[in-house]
Design a protein that fits this description.
Elements: E1 5-6, H1 14-22, E2 26-27, E3 37-38, H2 41-44, E4 52-65, E5 71-77, E6 85-90, E7 108-117, E8 123-127, E9 138-142, H3 159-163, H4 173-195, E10 199-200, E11 206-207, E12 219-220, H5 239-252, E13 257-258, E14 261-262, E15 273-275, H6 280-290, E16 292-300, E17 313-322, H7 326-347, H8 349-359, H9 363-372, E18 376-379, H10 380-392, H11 409-419, E19 424-430, E20 450-458, E21 462-469, H12 474-483, H13 492-499, E22 505-511, H14 512-520
Parallel strand pairs: 3-4, 6-8, 10-16, 18-19
Antiparallel strand pairs: 1-2, 4-5, 4-7, 5-6, 7-8, 7-9, 11-15, 12-15, 13-14, 16-17, 17-22, 19-20, 20-21, 21-22
The structure holds one RNA strand of 75 nucleotides.
RNA sequence: UCCCCGAUAGCUCAAUGGUAGAGCGGCCGGCUGUUAACCGGCAGGUUCUAGGUUCGAGUCCUAGUCGGGGAGCCA
């Protein structure tokens, strides 16, 4: 009767249905029975014509026709792919006038029907009651209570507006596509490292190191800072007075002030604690035993940054490789980026096609272009020469170009967007503008000392990766700590790595949201993370 | 944090200091295997907040809040 039907017959288990639907095979049932399987839309769009299935999802649009005694066309999405499936509902359904005709954008429905060929090509679902009838073929699972004020309409919304509707914006095609691409990339990151023998290390989110030194940190404390602070007046500070103050504070779970400073001895960790700004220092310890490791987790920066490329909470990927130098590090970064690009092009072709059509014309073509040829590698010093040459040629920059100073955004963008027009790995920066743990280059001119650092610059985004070979020599590391005014004692366990079996090693940090931005062409970083955290922004 | 721009119907935007408008969406009707459908009608407003200038402020001034772009910090 139905030509081809599902071989499997599942009814009520969400999990079993989903698993079954993935590996479903189609063909004639030996018993001729009618089976109703819940298919995700991605599978329904590929199912053979005549297959009888159930589909569940949310209405994107509904249009009506008076033809054939009344028809309703519903575009349904369920997140399984970019495309919606069209449900064609016959006017003969008992609940057609009472329910189907009243469906609006956002309603949740499930419908039974038969896969059919759409006159314009592709699959659609003919929703009709089975014979004999066994309940309504289209069932409304959840109504939209007031269609007039439902925030997501079937029309282009501004990203700024949708940011204020972050709990609903994933129902739009853009944010659905971003969510699938984000997932695809996260899986591809793990796949890339796993295939190359890296171990995934869960570095801590809370840290009591005050030595991370990468900008402003969020404080983590259980002290009740809402209460008045017992404090000892400067002129009355005696040992007894301070002790008394500490007692009071300990009993009240308050942060006592002594000598004008918060005393954290009563705090949860007994010392000042923060949210991590990087897993690098911790993951280096695992690198010195496991050889190839990486972290992939949330990272927090309390900087008051209001830009399209910064978040207060973002996800960072930080590999660390032992017995390796800066060149190995750059190779790893290049291989990883190319793996991510290839994976997203093949696994999320539907979403990438959308980004290329509606968000950024070159979204697909530039990735295809990039994976085909090696990244350029240029030293900082060569980069400066190129910039100086451009200035001589009449190019104007707001900031001066001078060896020994950090490159400004405009300089980086000039190199990657105008001069090379492709990703560039810039290496060997002057030591005074880089972190203490980066390895000093050998054989430098005395007044032009550089470190084995690298930045990967991409058109449109700027710096997407920052990395370096680490200083593995204890004496050199200590010199750098002192030079930068850091307290050597605070770094005791990090220094131990250089005392016990030290080896050359290297690593980098990749901002996960920035790579998603680069791939999708989404201009604001707040639109590539589900619930962005930024200054004055933590509503959801 | 600094510089610039903005805030008007559910959404996107108009409106010379002088009666608050359109498109989309919603509702009603027409047409239609439609698919960002189309055609007609209806409803929908404390013009971000608080002050000020003016006979009169959506419009000008001051402050604030929020949003956007750029910069710094970085990933």
């Amino acid at each position: 009767m139905f030509g081809r039907i599902l071989r499997v017959c599942e009814h009520d288990s969400f999990k079993r249905l989903s698993e079954t639907a993935r590996g479903i095979t189609f063909g004639s049932s030996p018993h001729g029975e009618v089976c109703m399987a819940w298919l995700r839309i991605v599978d329904a769009l590929k199912a053979p014509v005549g297959t009888r299935v159930t589909i569940k999802g949310w209405v994107r649009t509904r249009r009506d026709s008076k033809a054939e005694g009344g028809l309703a066309f519903i575009a349904l999405h369920d997140g399984s792919c970019f495309d919606t499936i069209q449900i064609v509902v016959k006017g003969t359904l008992p609940n057609f006038a009472s329910e189907v005709a009243k469906l609006t954008t956002g309603c949740a429905i499930e419908c039974d029907g038969v896969i059919a060929q759409n006159p314009k090509g592709g699959n659609e679902l003919q929703c009709e009651n089975p014979s004999p009838p066994a309940g309504d073929a289209l069932r409304v699972v959840g109504w939209v209570e007031d269609p007039d004020t439902y925030p997501i309409q079937p029309k282009p919304h501004s990203f700024e507006y949708l940011r204020e509707q972050a709990h609903l914006r994933v129902r739009t095609n853009t944010f659905g596509a971003v969510a699938r691409v984000r997932h695809c990339l996260a899986m591809a990151v793990h796949q890339f490292f796993h295939q190359r023998g890296f171990y995934y290390v869960h570095t801590p989110i809370i840290t009591a190191n005050d030595c991370e030194g990468a900008g402003q940190m969020f404080k983590v404390s259980t002290l009740d800072t809402m209460r008045p602070l017992p404090r000892v007046a400067k002129e009355a500070q005696s040992a007894e007075a301070i002790e008394h103050c500490r007692d009071l504070a300990a009993k009240a779970n308050m942060p006592p002030w002594t000598y004008g400073q918060v005393d954290h001895t009563n705090d949860f960790f007994g010392k000042e604690a923060h949210l991590t700004v990087s897993g690098q220092l911790n993951v280096e310890t695992y690198c010195m035993a496991m050889s190839r490791v990486y972290t992939f987790g949330p990272t927090f920066r309390a900087e008051n940054s209001n830009t399209s490329r910064h978040l207060a909470e973002f996800w960072m990927i930080e590999p660390e490789i032992a017995f390796a130098d800066l060149n190995d590090d750059a190779n790893l970064a290049e291989d990883m980026l190319k793996h991510l690009f290839r994976t997203v092009l093949s696994e999320r072709a539907d979403d990438m096609k959308f980004f290329a059509e509606r968000i950024e014309k070159t979204a697909v073509s530039r990735l295809e272009h990039i994976v085909e040829k090696p990244f350029l590698r240029v030293t900082y010093t060569e980069g400066i020469k190129i910039l100086e040459g451009a200035i001589k040629g009449g190019r104007k920059f707001e900031f001066p170009v001078k060896w020994g100073t950090d490159l400004q955004s405009e300089h980086e963008r000039f190199l990657t967007e105008e001069h090379f027009k492709q990703p560039v790995i810039l290496t060997n920066y002057p030591k005074q503008i880089k972190a203490f743990y980066m390895r000093l280059d050998d054989n430098c001119e005395p007044d032009r000392q550089t470190v084995r650092a690298m930045d990967v610059l991409c058109p449109g985004i700027g710096e997407i990766i920052g990395g370096s070979q680490r200083e593995e020599r204890l004496d050199k590391l200590d010199e750098r700590l002192v030079e930068m005014g850091l307290n050597i004692a605070d770094y005791w366990w990090y220094r131990d790595l250089r005392r016990y079996g030290t080896v050359p090693h290297a690593g980098f940090g990749l901002g996960f949201e920035r790579i998603i931005q680069f791939i999708t062409g989404m201009q604001n970083i707040r639109d590539v993370i589900p619930f962005p955290r930024a200054p004055k922004q933590a509503e959801f």
